[in-house]
Design brief:
Layout: E1 14-17, E2 22-24, E3 31-32, E4 43-46, E5 55-57, E6 70-74, E7 80-83, E8 88-90, E9 94-99, H1 105-112, H2 126-130, E10 133-136, H3 139-182, H4 190-197, H5 204-222, E11 247-250, E12 255-260, E13 268-269, E14 273-276, E15 281-282, E16 285-286, E17 292-294, H6 296-302, E18 313-316, E19 324-326, E20 333-335, E21 339-344, H7 350-358, H8 360-367, H9 380-384, E22 387-390, H10 393-436, H11 450-474
Parallel strand pairs: 3-8, 4-8, 14-20
Antiparallel strand pairs: 1-10, 2-9, 4-5, 6-7, 6-9, 11-22, 12-21, 13-17, 14-17, 15-16, 18-19, 18-21
Helix pairs in contact: 3-10
């Protein structure tokens, strides 16, 4: 026996080999391939995935009829599911078992989650479950244990649901902050402040004109005799009216550079330069521990259009479309697939630019331009024609400061929620562990001991077999 099976069980409990107390439900020609799953159907498909119901089907010939509760075990994933209705089994790595009458099915479901199985990756695990031992309490006590587990889980689940609701509320709060910021409602309006203080200010329209004039002047100095090409001006007819002093700034107008990633998959290595793609970004942050590396040669190839620097903004135009992050200082990075990069003009706060790209106001624009049914994406030419609401520069700075303050508070609250959710999961496992060890509820000495129950069932089985044998002899 393994160490867990050396646990000292209560006096009227017994250890049992798992293989001796289960019946395997035959699944030959009764499994459904994942590619055949439907969104709707007569029968739910139960497989070894994290989601309880993987899909649906109308294939009645594959149905596993519900006579008593069944346990679905993921041979690859070790996921355990309790099923008490008709269903169809998913094809990949599904084992369906039923505990014998000595075990209350609901308790068996809870207890097999307490058996430590080796982690063999995507290899088969059912063989280890069959060879394991499981504690068997008296039958009346099994029902009492389940009653107590589910009482505790009900209270725990209520708390978890409250935490998840709070987390969802934080997500809405973040969007509300960004919406207010990009509609001019988060901080005092620069035009109103200037008027109240009796001073001049530079409206965003004047700021944009100055940026464009400076860009043209610099280009013409470097390209004498050549014709200057104006940046793409956005179509703003269908965009909302902006606060006083604000102006719609086209992305092509307010960016020094807009570059796309190379349309090739880089060769990744164990160490080197960071390659940033949609696998390692969340809204507003690069998750460097999830980033992959490329060699110096690959890095140089991928930055030949423009070397990213601190303050540049990365934007996902495929996959997790709409995710925007800013390049932090002291990191050498290149663009992976599905990414593009902006470098803003002087007079544009790059942090404000990033926030505007994350806002619902900008999302409403790019959602209209998504193409591709297999891999949805936005063409870079379409993005250049989009616009963000542009406040005066001093107001941009104030907005960034206030958004960062609000989102920092939200981040701290989210950390607390995530910590509490992890604590709840640890408590759930602790409840199951105490139940598994016979420490969750007190034992009743009046209960028929598990050993006596087993002997009685064996005797009844032997009696039935003897009677059946006698009948056959008389025929």
């Amino acid at each position: 026996m393994d160490s867990y099976e050396k646990l000292i069980l209560p006096e009227n409990w017994a250890w049992m080999p798992v293989k001796e107390i289960i019946e395997k439900i035959p699944l030959t020609n009764k499994k459904l391939k994942q590619k055949e799953y439907q969104q709707n159907g007569k029968f739910p498909v139960i497989d070894q995935g994290q989601v309880f119901i993987g899909g649906y089907t109308d294939k009645e010939e594959l149905k596993i009829s519900y006579e008593s509760p069944l346990i679905v075990f993921g041979d690859h994933t070790k996921i355990v599911k309790f099923v008490n209705f008709d269903f169809v089994a998913g094809a990949d790595g599904v084992k369906v078992i039923r505990p014998k009458k000595v075990f209350y099915p609901r308790l068996f479901y809870y207890f097999i989650q307490g058996i430590p199985l080796p982690d063999k990756g995507y290899a088969r695990h059912f063989q280890f479950l069959e060879k394991s031992f499981i504690p068997l309490p008296p039958l009346p006590e099994q029902h009492r244990i389940v009653e107590r587990i589910e009482q505790l889980f009900t209270n725990l689940d209520a708390g978890v649901e409250s935490l998840k609701a709070a987390r969802a509320q934080l997500k809405r709060y973040r969007q509300s902050v960004l919406k207010s910021a990009c509609e001019g409602r988060l901080v005092p309006n620069e035009a109103e402040l200037a008027r109240a203080e009796g001073r001049e200010y530079e409206p965003a329209e004047v700021l944009l004109e100055r940026i464009l004039e400076e860009r043209r002047r610099k280009w013409e100095e470097k390209n004498k005799g050549k014709k200057y090409k104006d940046p793409i001006a956005p179509e703003t007819d269908k965009l909302n009216e902006l606060p006083e002093g604000w102006h719609w700034g086209g992305l092509d107008e307010i960016s020094q550079h807009i570059v796309d990633c190379l349309h090739s998959t880089p060769k990744f290595v164990n160490e080197g330069k960071y390659c940033i793609d949609t696998n390692c970004i969340e809204q507003g942050k690069i998750i460097f521990e999830n980033a992959r590396f490329v060699s110096v040669d690959t890095y140089n190839e991928r930055v030949r259009r423009l070397v990213p620097k601190a303050g540049d903004i990365l934007f996902a135009r495929e996959g997790t479309i709409g995710t925007a992050v800013i390049v932090p200082p002291n990191f050498d990075i290149c663009l992976g697939q599905r990414m593009m990069m902006f470098r803003t003009e002087n007079g544009i706060d790059s942090s404000y630019f990033m926030l505007a790209l994350q806002s619902k106001i900008f999302e409403l624009q790019w959602k209209l331009k998504i193409t591709g049914s297999t891999v949805p994406h936005i063409n870079i030419g379409e993005i250049k024609m989009m616009a963000i609401p542009l406040p005066p520069l001093t107001e941009q700075h104030r907005i960034v400061t206030e958004v960062e303050r609000c989102l920092l508070a939200a981040d701290e609250m989210e950390k607390t929620i995530e910590h509490s959710l992890k604590q709840a999961e640890r408590l759930r496992q602790s409840i199951l562990k105490r139940a598994f060890e016979g420490k969750l509820i007190p034992q009743d000495p009046e209960d028929e001991p598990a050993g006596v129950l087993l002997e009685r069932i064996k005797g009844e089985k032997a009696k039935r077999e003897a009677e059946e044998k006698a009948k056959n002899k008389k025929r």
